[in-house]
Amino acid sequence: MVAEHAAPILVASNRGPVSYKRREDGSLAAGRGGGGLVSGLSAIGTGAGALWVCSALGEGDREAVRRTGGRLDPADTGGMSVRMLDIAPEVFTAAYNGIANSVLWFVHHLLYQTPLEPDFDADFRAQWAAYEAYNAAFADALAEEAAPGAAVLVQDYHLTLVPGLLRERRPDLRVGHFSHTPWAPPDYFRMLPDDVAEQVLRGVLGSDRAAFLTRRWAEAFAACCADVLGAEIVRGDGPDGALSVRFEGRTTRLGVHGLGADAAFLRERAHRADVEERMAALREQIGPDRKTIVRVDRTELSKNIVRGLRAYRRLLEDRPQWRGKVVHVAFAYPSRQDLAVYRDYTAEVERVAQEINSTFGTADWLPVVLHVKDDFARSLAAYRLADVALVNPIRDGMNLVAKEVPVVSDRGCVLVLSREAGAFAELGEDAITVNPFDVEATARALHEGLLMEPAERAERTERLASAATALPPARWFLDQLRALEG
Ligand code: G6P
């Protein structure tokens, strides 16, 4: 049944634009989400008829759903219409932690390695059933809310089955799917149980248009469709020619939209008083006349923080001239702490940072300044101060830090960038490129970055900033919508 106030444009994502915490007095505090995804999807706007469907993530959210019936108060959402789904906690946890953040995240980021190899056993099957139920709950809600012929933009690896399920329920809709992660190459993707691999691909192919952050991930998806499903790949002319996948009589167009940084927002935000205060505090911690290497990440295995720290240690070992002259400011914000492998990684980051400090630190020099409490204002302060930004993920859909730093940098900043980050496709020419597994080469890149002449640094930063802002979040969203409607 289609709802009374059916929506012509819908977005579906696991995490919505707002989340709730219960205060001591029992009332609910609404917090707005940050980051490129939320600001991009927020371009759905407050106009009549646009609707964002997301999941309740914790107890505060569930309470908000109980109190509102799922239609959040526009006062909490910046005026956007948001329907939050209260999916049973055990289903949500198995789908989100078990399948999305363990299995699918690990597959697309190529993170499985001994001893982290997957065991697809009875636990996995139960989690997979939860993932199906979780996806079905989204498909049901979208089918109910969408106006005839509406455009639905489904986001990410949490919701790969939604396009296919939605097509069964509502063949009149135009459905897009967007992957914010890399896509695994076929040899790796086939690690998934055969029926699951097929189901994921069929799910995404249920869309009219499946889009990715870079051409590389779109090609990997196409290769998986050919390899696992025997689908036909149709290519337009030239290396960037349009790609589409033909399978069982339907065609899914593939698209590429490289989400960029929001220059206007970042520049304004980075010059507020709270950022200036944090710059002063950081300068104090760094000490006078020292260079600064900055990194800002969620503490997440794909971000390769430990190897980054090892590269810094290598720099101090091999090039003693830097001892006392450089500080590595590392912000590693805890993420997905319900999962043991993320908790262990967080502990490892702290251990290696401490080890460097106890090996090299002196009475007036702390080689690594590690902060683990998420603070966006402090991140911006570090971006503005950085001489070198280290972005060395093993694999990353895009990496917005690489795009944000050049936009707000005060004096120009050298970007040391992994060639395995999606952002490399747009920023590679003006960054110092590294193979993220090569600790020694990363140490050399840091050295080179620290030595770069101010004029060259400034010129490169200017070009990086212009490439990084080519597709700001609002246009990223509207381009997808237009491409789906076209
Ligand atoms: C990163 C990824 C996104 C993903 C998000 C989920 O930002 O690039 O693809 O949707 O993490 O994070 P969460 O904290 O919701 O698990």
TrEMBL record:
Whether Transferase counts among this entry's keywords is yes
* Top-level EC class as recorded in UniProt: transferase
Q: Name one GO cellular component term.
A: cytosol
UniProt GO BP: trehalose biosynthetic process
Q: Which domain of life is it from?
A: Bacteria
Which one of the record's GO molecular function terms can you name? trehalose-phosphatase activity
Write down the CDD domains for this protein, in alphabetical order.
GT20_TPS
Pfam families linked to this entry: Glyco_transf_20
List the InterPro entries hit by this protein, alphabetically.
Glyco_trans_20
The answer, when asked if Transferase is one of the entry's keywords, is yes
EC number(s) stated in the UniProt entry for this protein: 2.4.1.15
Cite the entry's keywords alphabetically.
Glycosyltransferase, Transferase
Family to which the UniProt record says this protein belongs: Belongs to the glycosyltransferase 20 family.
PANTHER family in alphabetical order: BCDNA.GH08860 (PTHR10788:SF106), TREHALOSE-6-PHOSPHATE SYNTHASE (PTHR10788)
Tell me what this protein is called.
Trehalose 6-phosphate synthase
Query: Which species is this UniProt entry from?
Result: Streptomyces netropsis
